[in-house]
Each structure stands twice: as structure tokens, then as C-alpha cells.
Specification:
alpha+beta, five-stranded antiparallel beta sheet, four-stranded antiparallel beta sheet, 19 helices, elongated
Length: 622
């Protein structure tokens, strides 16, 4: 069951309880004891239920002091009312004092009203907008003046004329109509303030409780001063109902708001024409009443009436203009908020890192992607220069590009940063000037982590000149290095050796055990060749089972020794997938400059020698 539906059942229960009270009055109207006893018990039960709701609200709002204080004041209101009802019952039945306005119970009734009024004042003080409250005070001042005039004429003045008792007795009688005027003050303040003070449904309950309380008091005191014979107990259920509604406020306040809570800044534009017109209508009402009560209508009365009417019409024109300006202001505010929300959404949810820098290059803000990229907390990053995180070799370029952006030019560049783990990350950042009214106020930086792209680029460049399987140089790189060796040998008058290797019986191994074993065997052979090669030499895989080596500054005599050592190294068995495999190579050699002085001559000679060895009686070339 939803909270709102449950609350509707509780409201129906409160109304039914009030009707039950009236049923009790109807049944026991001839028996004063049963009538008073049942009425007191029903009142005590209803107010106690309200107090229980309020106590739960006090406990649940312990972390919200202002909210808790509001519930404490209302709880005090219902508690004092319950205590007053108990005391009155004992006074009425055991002390035989029938006056409802004397004794200790009367003090408790007054305390109940005081705490109710304090709760209203606390809510107005904590949630009221100063500017709006000033206008409320003047509006309510008009309403209070008119209300006080009618109350004095119809209620207070007759009481003063009729009362012959003490000043305290007179003050006791006048307390309730005066208190109701303060209640009207709070009610109008809540009415004008609307959602600033309460959620919509909560406001309806608060105003309903105030209205029922005021109307019940008005009926009671009108009956008192006019001498009407109206049974007092018929008013009691209507005095109880506002006390129960005070507790019901707790239940309604739990409901989710049907509209966003209105902030102080945007409340004023929602004030209705009726709300604005109400104070002036009261003024007109008071003037008409005054004119009607006077001895006659003269020129002064007519002139005063016309003047008041013109002032009111003029005020309405001013109000209409103000409302138009307020609506325009509100529309612009909504548009600005919408624009800010769109910017914030783009900023926060952009998949790339977005930074906002001041003109000195310090980080003013960054989005979640930027925080994740930098690998630090937002608090640690805000206010720190971006250059603190850029690696030294890129600092000059970054500062140069930042200066370019400050000239209003969009500029992209790449640099590396060090994250907290010590890893270098490549960033591609575009600097965009932030212009406000054509004035540069900062720089946006939209950065993308391209570390993976850089790694892929490096891999592509590597395999453009290296064999994918073995990691050795490929034919392209080997021929380029051979060209360089020829140029250097010409300049330095040195010699070098080129070796071609072909693996005997590799095809049979590959066919018998599969390509996976063949690939692992090639990798193992390449590893031994790489270990054999000195730093100034180069080893390559030409393709298939053919390899080549460039031994720089190695003459023919030295080359024979190296070839023998290489043959011995490669002839040892290989352990591949629990297999012992032997793959002895055939090696052909070409010597610079005796076997050729060009790339093609040397390659052809080495290839020819390799095939001679492969198909001859020996497995080596000398």
C-alpha cells in the first residue's frame, strides 16, 4: 500500500472519529455524566494519537534540528491540550467548577495555543524569504487591520461592555479571539508562501486545521456574546479535529512531493491574482462598511472612495507590470538553468577527459573521466597546475601550445603524464579558449588517453621492420642495414660477412608435428641466433625457414670460426612440447669485398653458397 493511500485511510478514520463523537453526544445528550465522560475520553484518545505521531516524527528527525524543533513544539501543543482536558474532567465532575475559563486547566489550554503559535512562527522564521516576508507582513498588516476592526466591533467591544468581573476574567474571555487573530496571521503567511513552507498536501492540512479552529472559536464566542442557546458540547468535536489534524501533518509530510520544492528565489512569480487582490478587497470591504455605518454619504466620503479606488487600480497596473517582469525574469532564469544543465551534462558525461584551466594553467574543474585519467582525487587536482603532471620532455611544447590557446587559437598536441602508479600515459589534448563577452577567461582542455593507440603505432612500426613470429629483423630492415654496412666499409676500408641459413628437414618436422610445433621451433632457433649475434651485428628471418646474418667488421678467417660456433650452437636438440627435435642448418657465406661490393652481389653469393652446402657433401661453407 502506498503512503498516500494509507494516509487517505487515516484521514477517513479521523473524520469517522469526529462523527463518532457526535453520535456519542446524540445518544447521551440527556445524561450529563456520560456525555462529559465519553467526550473527555474521546478527546484524550484523539489527542494522544496525534501526540504519538508527533513523537515518532521527533525521533526520526533527530539529525535535522530545525525540523525536529517544529515537531517538538507541535507535540507540546497536543500534550498540553490532553493534560488540560484531563484536568477539566476532574474539575467538572469532582470539584464542581463549571467555568471553562478558570483554574489550572485553563492555563494548560493557553499553553497549548502558545506552542501551536510558536510552531508556526518557527516554520516561518526558518523557511521564510526575507524579501518575501516583508511583503507578507504588509499584506497581512492590511488583513489584520480589517480583521481586528470587525473583531473589535462584533466581539471584543460587546464583551467589554457586558463584562463586570475582574481584569483577569475579562482578559481570559478576550484571549481566544485575540489568539485567533494571531492564528489568522500565520495562516495567511502560509497561504501566501505556499510551497516555500510546506509541500502542497501538507499545506492543505495545516490550513484546514487553522480554519476549523478559527471557525469553531468564532461560533463559540459569537454564541457567548449574543446570548444564544447553543450547546457547548456540540463545538467540542470541532475543537478536537484540528488537534488530530496537527498530528496528521506528520503522516502527510512523509509523502513524496508531487512537485519540486520551490526555492526562495522563484516563489514570487507563482503568487496568484487572488492572493495579490485579497488585501485590497479587504480595504474596500472596510471602506464600504464604514460608509454604511456613517450617518450619510457626503462629498468627502465619495472623494475618499474614488481616491481609494484609483489607488487600487493604479496598484493593480503596477502589479501587472511587475508580474510581467517577474515572468520574463523567471523565463530567462529557466533558460539559463537549462543551458547550465546541458553544459553540465556534456561536461560530466563526456567520454573524454574535460579540464577547465584558468589563465595560469591551473585546474579549476574536471569531469569524472578526467579524475579517472589523472588517478587522483578531485580535491587534490583542483588548483594545481597541469604542468605538475606532465613529463619533462614535453613541458616546453605544452607551454607553447597553451600560450597559443590564450591567443584565441584552438590547438591540439600530444604529451605524456605520470599517473600515481608511475606509468606514463599518452594524452592527445585540444585546448579551446573560454570566451565570455569576447573576453578570455580560461581555457578548456579536452584530453583523450591515446596510450593504447601509441602502443599499437609502435607495434606497427616495429613489425614493419621485424618478423612477426620471431621478432628478428625482416628482409626490408636487413637489406637497409646491409646498404649502410657497404657505405661504411667503403669509407673505413673494412670488411664484413653475410651469412644465409636454411634449416634442413624443417619441412618434414612441420608436416609431421604441425604448424604450432614448427612455429615454436623457428622461435627457438631465432632465440639462439639472436643470442649468438653481437650488438653491432644484425640477424633476420627472410621468410619460411631461411635466416640471414650480417657480421660487421669480420674478415674471412674470423668468419670461419663464427660459422663453426653457430653451427655447433644450432645443432643442439630443441625441446618443443615434450619433443626432442634436431634441426641442423646449412650456412652459406659471402665476404665483402672479395665476393662482391653491392647488395645484390653479396646476397646472391651467400644464397649460392648456402645451396651448395645444402646439396653438397658437407654441411658448412669455408
Amino acid at each position: 500500500m502506498s503512503i498516500r493511500k494509507e494516509n487517505n485511510y487515516w484521514l477517513l478514520a479521523l473524520i469517522s472519529f469526529t462523527l463518532l463523537y457526535y453520535a456519542w453526544i446524540f445518544i447521551w445528550q440527556q445524561n450529563d455524566f456520560m456525555l462529559a465522560t465519553g467526550g473527555s475520553l474521546l478527546t484524550f484518545f484523539g489527542v494522544s494519537l496525534s501526540s504519538i505521531w508527533l513523537w515518532r516524527a521527533i525521533v526520526q528527525s533527530a539529525s535535522q534540528k530545525d525540523r525536529q524543533m517544529y515537531w517538538i513544539l507541535l507535540f507540546s501543543c497536543t500534550s498540553f491540550y490532553a493534560a488540560a482536558e484531563i484536568i477539566w474532567f476532574f474539575v467538572h465532575h469532582f470539584l464542581y467548577e463549571t467555568s471553562a475559563f478558570s483554574g489550572l486547566h485553563y492555563f494548560f489550554y493557553i499553553c497549548s495555543d502558545v506552542f501551536y503559535f510558536l510552531a508556526c512562527v518557527q516554520r516561518i522564521w526558518k523557511r521564510g524569504n526575507r524579501s518575501l516576508l516583508i511583503k507578507f507582513i504588509f499584506n497581512v498588516g492590511v488583513l489584520m487591520t480589517v480583521s481586528l476592526s470587525f473583531t473589535w466591533y462584533y466581539l471584543i467591544a460587546p464583551l467589554i461592555e457586558q463584562e463586570t468581573g475582574s481584569f483577569f476574567s475579562l482578559a481570559s474571555i478576550l484571549y481566544f479571539p485575540v489568539a485567533d487573530l494571531f492564528l489568522i496571521l500565520c495562516g495567511f503567511t502560509f497561504y501566501f508562501g505556499g510551497n516555500q513552507f510546506f509541500k502542497k498536501r501538507t499545506l492543505y492540512v495545516v490550513l484546514a486545521a487553522m480554519l476549523i479552529h478559527f471557525m469553531t472559536d468564532a461560533v463559540y464566542f459569537t454564541e457567548l456574546i449574543q446570548g444564544l442557546q447553543f450547546p457547548d458540547h456540540l463545538v467540542d468535536p470541532l475543537l478536537l479535529l484540528p488537534m488530530m489534524l496537527v498530528g496528521y501533518i506528520v503522516l502527510v509530510d512523509r509523502e513524496p512531493a508531487t512537485m519540486p520544492f520551490q526555492t526562495n528565489e522563484n516563489m514570487e512569480h507563482q503568487v496568484s491574482i487572488f492572493q495579490l487582490a485579497l488585501p485590497y478587497l479587504f480595504v474596500v470591504l472596510l471602506f464600504v462598511f464604514t460608509a454604511a455605518r456613517s450617518n450619510g454619504i457626503d462629498a468627502i466620503s465619495i472623494g475618499s472612495g474614488i481616491s481609494i479606488l484609483l489607488v487600487i487600480i493604479r496598484q493593480f497596473i503596477v502589479i501587472a507590470d511587475n508580474h510581467r517582469l517577474v515572468r520574463q525574469y523567471h523565463q530567462k532564469t529557466v533558460q539559463l538553468e537549462l543551458s547550465e544543465e546541458r553544459y553540465k551534462s556534456l561536461f560530466d558525461h563526456h567520454p573524454d577527459s574535460v579540464f577547465s584551466f584558468d589563465l595560469k594553467g591551473k585546474i579549476e574543474s574536471l569531469n569524472p573521466a578526467g579524475i579517472q585519467l589523472m588517478g587522483s582525487s578531485q580535491a587534490a587536482l583542483i588548483g594545481s597546475p597541469i604542468t605538475d603532471y606532465i613529463e619533462q620532455e614535453h613541458l616546453a611544447d605544452v607551454e607553447k601550445n597553451f600560450l597559443t590557446a590564450k591567443k584565441g587559437i584552438v590547438k591540439s598536441h600530444q604529451f605524456t603524464i605520470k599517473n600515481p602508479e608511475g606509468n606514463s600515459l599518452w594524452i592527445d589534448m585540444t585546448h579551446i579558449p573560454i570566451l565570455v563577452k569576447n573576453k578570455l577567461v580560461g581555457i578548456f582542455g579536452i584530453g583523450k588517453n591515446i596510450t593504447e593507440n601509441k602502443a599499437n603505432e609502435e607495434k606497427i612500426r616495429f613489425y614493419a621492420y621485424h618478423d612477426y613470429l620471431t621478432g628478428l629483423a625482416n628482409r626490408r630492415q636487413f637489406e637497409a642495414k646491409l646498404e649502410q654496412a657497404i657505405e661504411q666499409a667503403v669509407q673505413k676500408q673494412t670488411s664484413f660477412t653475410v651469412l644465409f641459413l636454411d634449416l634442413n628437414k624443417f619441412k618434414q618436422i612441420n608436416d609431421q608435428y604441425g604448424h604450432e610445433v614448427g612455429d615454436e621451433l623457428l622461435s627457438a632457433i631465432a632465440k639462439r641466433i639472436q643470442d649468438f649475434t653481437e650488438e653491432k651485428d644484425i640477424a633476420s628471418r627472410l621468410g619460411g625457414d631461411e635466416f640471414s646474418l650480417l657480421l660487421t667488421e669480420v674478415d674471412k678467417a674470423t668468419a670461419h670460426k663464427k660459422i663453426s660456433a653457430l653451427m655447433d650452437l644450432l645443432s643442439h636438440p630443441y625441446s618443443i612440447n615434450h619433443l626432442e627435435l634436431t634441426c641442423i642448418p646449412s650456412i652459406g657465406a659471402a665476404y665483402y669485398p672479395s665476393d662482391g661490393t653491392t647488395l645484390s652481389e653479396l646476397l646472391s653469393k651467400a644464397d649460392l653458397e648456402m645451396y651448395r652446402v645444402k646439396h653438397g657433401d658437407t654441411s658448412n661453407s669455408h
